[in-house]
Design goal:
Length: about 325
């Protein structure tokens, strides 16, 4: 279905839980995060019902995210049931990769098409500092496993931050020489915990590009969010996702469902509609979804306001 600005909205991102097994510095506070009660989180069948109705409105691409989606019991079942829906032709997950190595084959069998694994550093000590809890080896093992079993493409999400991992840019580029992955450098966004480090850590991709004239722009492949480049002869590629310095709202095709059942038309807007109240009435549920899609805001205002208007943070929305 098209929104009032003529954009075709065909992509639903779903946060299946706000719980996470890591505490990344730009996303979640180290202590004091109160997990939602199970009864406040959408159940498996409720998520499926929303996916099924969204499908009738032209949604054909689903991404399961979190918190950490792989801590959800039955995520494989959810993917399997989603894959049975005729109109859904793309099912992806965004994960921190800690639990993925052991689950990847089953998820692929269930119908998962592709993965984005978040990885901000290749240095084990920095990895501990950024994620506060994680084990880098587990994530690397997961990425290798996904490549071996043929999940395609494997994308790596890397939030580039001055003073944390900007000096590793070349190491990430080197990874793409032999690995068939797409490394997506994501600009830090002033939302949630990201607000606290935004001014000192923000980094625009132009700065990186300026120092790497060897990168070749990939023109023949379209991505609505990323500017794609590659090193000459490399097996992999890189993408820059720059929501602040290179805004892509005019091509945005997404809506977002949070784990509590609210639907957000834009990551950075205040607006959300609680779908839980309509779960027993398909007509009202359909109308609520239509309303959210039609009224999707034209754009965010991060560049001038320097802070997200969203009342929910990244681990509650899923990115
Ligand atoms: N736990 C999963 C993961 O880390 O991949 C999925 C949820 S996480 C919120 C989704 C993505 O949002 C991750 O790639 C993470 O790096 C990114 N993210 C979180 N907070 C961010 C921020 N303030 N700015 C930019 N990206 C952020
Ligand atoms: Fe968890 Fe993902 Fe947020 Fe890190 S970015 S704290 S892994 S939800």
């Amino acid at each position: 279905m098209r929104d009032s600005h003529g954009r075709n909205i065909n992509y639903l991102r779903i946060s299946v839980t706000d719980r996470c097994n890591l505490r990344c510095i730009y996303c979640m506070p180290e202590l004091g995060v109160e997990s939602l009660k199970h009864t406040d989180i959408l159940r498996f069948e409720e998520i499926l019902k929303i996916v099924r109705i969204s499908e009738t409105l032209g949604i054909n691409k689903i991404r399961y995210t979190g918190g950490e989606p792989l801590v959800m019991t039955d995520i494989d079942k959810l993917i399997y049931e989603t894959s049975k829906l005729q109109g859904i032709n793309d099912i992806a997950i965004t994960t921190n990769g800690i639990l993925l190595a052991d689950m990847a084959s089953d998820l692929k069998k269930a119908g998962l098409k592709r993965v984005n694994v978040s990885l901000d550093t290749l240095d084990p000590v920095k990895f501990k500092n950024i994620t506060r809890l994680g084990n880098l080896d587990k994530v690397i093992e997961s990425i290798d496993r996904c490549i071996i079993i043929g999940l395609k493409p494997v994308k790596i999400n890397t939030v580039l931050m001055r003073g944390f991992n900007d000096t590793e840019f070349d190491d990430f580029l080197d990874l793409t020489r032999e690995m068939p992955v797409e490394i997506r450098f994501i600009e830090l966004m002033p939302i949630g915990e990201g607000i606290k480090i935004y001014d000192k850590s923000k980094l625009s991709f132009m700065e990186m590009l300026k120092n790497h004239p060897e990168l070749i722009k990939i023109e023949d492949e379209k991505s609505s969010t990323a500017q794609l480049y590659k090193l000459p002869g490399a097996k992999g590629k890189i993408g820059f996702i720059s929501p602040v310095s290179h805004k892509f709202c005019s091509d945005c095709n997404k809506i977002r469902l949070t784990s509590t059942g609210t639907i957000k038309p834009c990551l950075h807007s205040k607006e959300e509609i609680n779908l839980r109240q309509y779960l027993n009435n398909e007509e009202m549920l359909t109308n609520a979804l239509k309303q959210v899609i039609f009224n999707k805001p034209l754009e965010h205002h991060l560049e001038e306001e320097k802070i997200s208007r969203s009342e929910k943070t990244m681990y509650q929305i899923g990115g």
